[in-house]
Design goal:
This protein has ten helices and three strands. The chain is mainly α. The protein has a three-stranded mixed sheet with strand order 2-1-3.
Length: about 300
């Protein structure tokens, strides 16, 4: 919808994935199942970590933050997508889009930082085991968590200020299922070089600095594991990192591909599919990855089931 005087976009229309009713019903059921599994799975992780004193360690403190984040993250985008699949009017107001874009970007940034903090925790645990309790004290853990959340919320605010100041005078059709930064930028009716550069610079800071920390941490971890003489010791050390590495590979692979490559009109349909990985699938897979491949979490789950 456009106002008569200023021809200013007051709402956006989502194209989504399909306009065929049968396919929309199938997609609704699939994404609803993913959403419920995500919320349920992460609530289990949160409950288990809080209830079991054996999991009151820095590693599971960050996992607790990740589970809380995943619930927020998936709740930012999926309910809107589900609503659009069952209604004819697939719209969102301009300010509703700005709010969704802000929180979606914020939570994605938080995950980048949390994965970096978790990698540093594993580095200290494996490479400096005698100093672990001193280095990874609770004060540092809370400071790292506060930095992850605070810095991401502030960085996203700066990016969104640059974007919402752009003139949007039509068209107002978003070739996406939620208000993601690249999709919204493509609708601005002016040169977007400056906001695109802001997004690019923040992408380097937010994505590559934690990613570099992860690479450096795991390089030292790999060298330390190679010095372990027994195969059992090496296997135990690698098992503590396997879940985290799996999440890092999927999340960073899709995020880097989305935000760190040139834009093209032909790639927008593909972008929607790629975005599903880090907005829908990753929040759902995180509790499965960390519970199925983590002996401590599985043990805590068994003890909680026995207790009930």
């Amino acid at each position: 919808m456009l106002t008569n005087n200023e021809t200013f976009v007051t709402e956006f229309i989502f194209l989504g994935f399909s306009n065929q009713p049968r396919i929309q019903v199938i997609l609704f059921m699939v994404f609803l199942a993913c959403y419920l599994l995500t919320v349920f799975g992460n609530l289990i992780i949160i409950s288990v970590v809080r209830a079991d004193l054996r999991l009151h360690t820095p590693m599971y403190f960050f996992l607790l933050n990740l589970s809380i984040l995943d619930i927020f993250y998936v709740s930012t985008n999926v309910p809107q997508m589900l609503t659009n699949l069952v209604t004819r009017k697939k719209t969102i107001t301009f300010w509703g889009c700005a709010i969704q874009m802000y929180f979606s970007l914020s939570f994605g940034m938080v995950e980048c930082f949390l994965l970096g903090a978790m990698a540093y925790d594993r580095y200290v645990a494996i490479c400096q085991p005698l100093q672990y309790t001193v280095t990874m004290n609770w004060k540092l853990c809370f400071q790292l968590a506060a930095f992850c959340w605070g810095n991401s919320l502030m960085s996203s605010l700066i990016i969104n200020i640059f974007i919402i100041q752009l003139p949007f005078c039509g068209p107002n059709v978003l070739n996406h299922y939620f208000c993601e930064v690249p999709a919204v930028l493509s609708l601005a009716c002016t040169d977007t070089f400056l906001p695109e550069m802001v997004v690019f610079v923040f992408s380097i800071i937010i994505v590559f600095i934690p990613f570099l920390l992860i690479i450096v941490s795991y390089t030292f971890i790999f060298l330390a594991v190679l010095r372990i003489r027994t195969a059992q010791g090496r296997s135990k050390a690698f098992s503590t990192c396997a879940s985290h590495l799996t999440v890092v590979a999927i999340f960073y692979g899709t995020a880097i591909f989305m935000y760190m490559r040139p834009r093209s009109k032909s790639s927008r349909d593909r972008d929607k599919v790629i975005a599903l990985f880090y907005t829908v699938l990753m929040p759902m897979l995180n509790p499965l990855i960390y519970s199925l491949r983590n002996k401590d979490v599985k043990g805590a789950l068994r003890r909680s089931l026995i207790a009930t």
